[in-house]
Queue: 2 jobs
Job 1
Amino acid sequence: MWKRIKSLTKLFLKTTFHFNPGKKKKKGSIILYALLFAYLIGIVIYGSYEAVDFLKGIQQEKAFAAIIIMANMLLALVVMLIGSLNVLYYSTDNLAVLPLPVKAGEIVAAKLNSLIAYEYIETALIGLLPLSVYGVLTGQSWIYYVLMIVVLAILPVIPVCISACLIIFLMSFTKGLRNKRLVQLFTMLLALGFSFSVSFISSSVRSEADVMAFFNQVNGLVEVYKSVLPNVSWAVSALLDRNILSLLILIAVSALIYVLSVLFSQKFYFKGVLSSLFSSGGIHKKKVDEKTSFKSQGLPLTYILKEFRIYLRRPTYLVQLLLPTLVVPVLMLVVFYFSAKQGMEGSGMSMDLFTEMIRGYEPIVFGCVVMVLLFNTMYSFLSVVAISKDGKDAAFMKTIPVPLWEQVLYKAVPDMLMVLFDSVVTILIVSFILKLRVLVIILLFLVMIPFSFFHGAFIYFDLRAPKLYWHNDLEIVKRNFRVMIPIAVHMVFIALVAILTFVAEMEMVPLAVLLTLVFSLLAFLSCLFLYKKTDTLAKAIY
């Protein structure tokens, strides 16, 4: 049994990370990705340094380590809800593995191992680096770093197993649903609802009086985060208090949940996976109305709608590209609202009084909201996969009697619309929470409209070197380092807005005008460059 699990784990790891020793990467791509990772690492280190330094000033530095541990656990829970659905049910490996003489539990155990390994990449960036910075600034001994590695190695096991079991349980009831897109959408909405519930409960486990009592103690705030979830408490105690018993409990509980997850999947996994393999994509015959069948919608609208249909029809694109852009920002804002409301009430201040107070700091509020907008829209990757998603069919672009420049523009429009839609939703929610003035709302729209047009210009990177040969849709999204480019660019702009807001202390209107001009100029220059260079860049499409 263990030999089969080990062999399957190696197989799934190769497909998950698309390991291909015979394929050589271009030096330019390696340098670009190295610079992007170095930039992200620098941002994480700098942000961690500032956060620890601030908390040390109020004698609550231990709370930083607790926040990082809790953030890793909750983020892993949300990310793995999406990842486990694709890996467990919509991976091309299933067609090859299911006919083999292996049990469902063995397949799931191997897939859980690959998911945990994938989660280690995320943990290294938002777990290992911040906690290392904390250790250096607080003068921790070598024992701390050993415990840190052990805790971070164990921490993803529980959220990965919980996410996988939830998905397996939900998918076991979808046997009668023949529409694969409907199954995936239904499952993801329920799973995200579960994640939201965990986040909401996590933000309200302590009363206001308890929070204030702990805040007034030296490093007392860490107790608030230790009480969020049992595994967070054990991990924090093991790391900060050198509590070996808590570490052993965390290891034992993680191993138990892992074993129970495998046993649970033994009964339910095959029900859902067979349904996912043989369900339709939702394709059905439409009744043709002779009066309207030949009514043209216009070339631009037809092309753009065709692009959106591709994203909607393929389950991986729907879950990995569209749903996170639509749901995650709203989820984050709602959780933030309830957390902030509880914090305000705990300090004896109502949200209404808080909104009245911040009106005297509108330039700072405006800059912070712009940074939130840039952060919420950084996960829109439609433009950097707009051509690669077509695979070999992208070559038909050169046979369609439409100029390549126009086709590239139409392919970039969905990304522009998603960024604009995300911005509108975020602005409306933030305006409701903070009761922003109409002028502030108008200025926010003034900034984000040209930025959304500029965002579509990221299609340049996909046009320049499209990934036309791939085994499954997951490779385009999850194993495509090109998606790091929008994240890095957004982080640059977030840093720029932070400098203009907090260092230069610009007023709201001049800052809005400056950002609008910068984004408008970038959008214009990008469009002009693509207009002149599309034919040359399109040589990579063949």
Note: The chain has a mean pLDDT of 77.
Job 2
Amino acid sequence: MQTTNKLPLDMVYHWETTKTNSLYLTQPIGDGKVVEYTWGRAVDEARRVASYLKSLNLAEKSRIGLISKNCAHWIMTDWAIWMAGHVSVPLYPTLNADTVNYVLNHAECDVLFVGKLDDWDLMKPGVPESVRCISYPLSPTNDFETWDDIVAKFPPLEENVQRDGEELATIVYTSGSTGRPKGVMLSFLNMAHSATGGLEVLQVGPNERMLSYLPLAHVFERTFVELASVYAGFHLFFAESLDTFVEDMKRAQPTLFLSVPRLWVKFQQGVLQKMPQKKLNTLLKIPVLNKLIKKKILAGLGLDKVKLAGSGSAPLAGDVLDWYRNLGLELLEGYGMSENFAYSHINKFGRSRTGYVGESMPGVETKISPEGEILVRSPGSMMGYYKDEEKTTEAFTEDGFLKTGDKGEIDEMGRLKITGRMKEIFKTSKGKYIAPAPIENRLMAHQSIEMVCVSGANQTQPFAMIQLAEGIRPKIGDASFRKELEDSFTELVTSVNKAVDPHEQLAFVIIVSDEWSIGNSFLTPTLKLKRNVVEDAYENKVDEWYAKRQKVIWQ
């Protein structure tokens, strides 16, 4: 693998001198207004905040927390922490007070940057009194020291601080889909290899535009947005809020766009509410209208300038992938983990295969264990789990391959297919093993479904719990619509059951009335389903459901 020997800060200094007056960050501040940061301004502010951090006389390589929604100051804070010789510890902006407290104490953070947040009042009780807090211009009301006052008061750090590649750069706490989050230790070399390898495969250059809106606390956004922009030198835009997302997309006109499966499904469902699939299919068959309709739909989503669209973090149903590709959007799935800085596999142009997450990225070795587990050795592989040598040892094979916890298979072109999670596989009362993910992907092809969880450990056959799409939920009070939907799901169960092995056939589906969200802990901050939370919530209903002997049950 060929990669740059330049570490993230080396690239920051490079653009500071070669693109001083070029726009780098565009930050919305409300009412349609934005603040724009050139490379020169962004690095200058980071240098001033680094001077401030050095003035605190913290211990060398102190851990410094950062809790905020994505914004320009998030990026500059990361740099400032590194310039001051410390380690950044990002926290998801949707955590509860208990998890905030756990992460800050576990990482022993002395300082916390408190940024743009919706629920600060719920998080604030988790911040120890000993932690010094600093606020951003877009922070909730507080009496902390402010970024702007620090920038005004402190001179810029003059030296180009160099960090060693093997040094710890950041601790990324996993989203905690099971139990307490683990602190993944990543070095500057992990970041350098992952960013440059990704740019090499995706052929990304300095003229791209990206909208940053997925949590920067997650490695997916950190690698392919923050670090990609630092290594390629392209223009980064930020989203203001969910309500302004369309305007934010139009402002950015992104050429690269990343999202997670749940949002790709939501975008699709939004289109189909306005234009049902049957009508869309009819229009796309008319040669004169075909290109016009496709362009109109992509423009409505703000994706008409996108040359590369990516999906990661969880599996995306093949039907959804094909739907976007049919519109002319080359939507490529990738695969990675916090433990390898999201640097593992990606589909390539002209070589993608529906249902597969692609080929190994440069420098990545992949093999399948005798038990069927995907093992990956990557330049992005973590240094280990913070303060947990036992779990670190468990995470790797003796020859240095990371145990992903995913089951998979590799085709003749080296493309990887995820067939389930090792720990998610459950056994029926008949002694047969079920991998829920492939069945869930088949169900997700139904456009009225937003999320699904297949379960049924120790039962005769598995079943599926379904959350309806947001636009569908208000309509279920209509008796005729409800009956139509029920018939549709009955057909879906029949169709899925024909496509799977007899022991995998669904006994029934449950349409749940609860909303699965981050707020009630059913989802992780990256919108992944917490399977154990979902199953625990409905555990006392399961016997009653089986006793009903119906294909579709409303809960």
Note: Residues 517 and 523 are 5 Å apart (CA to CA).
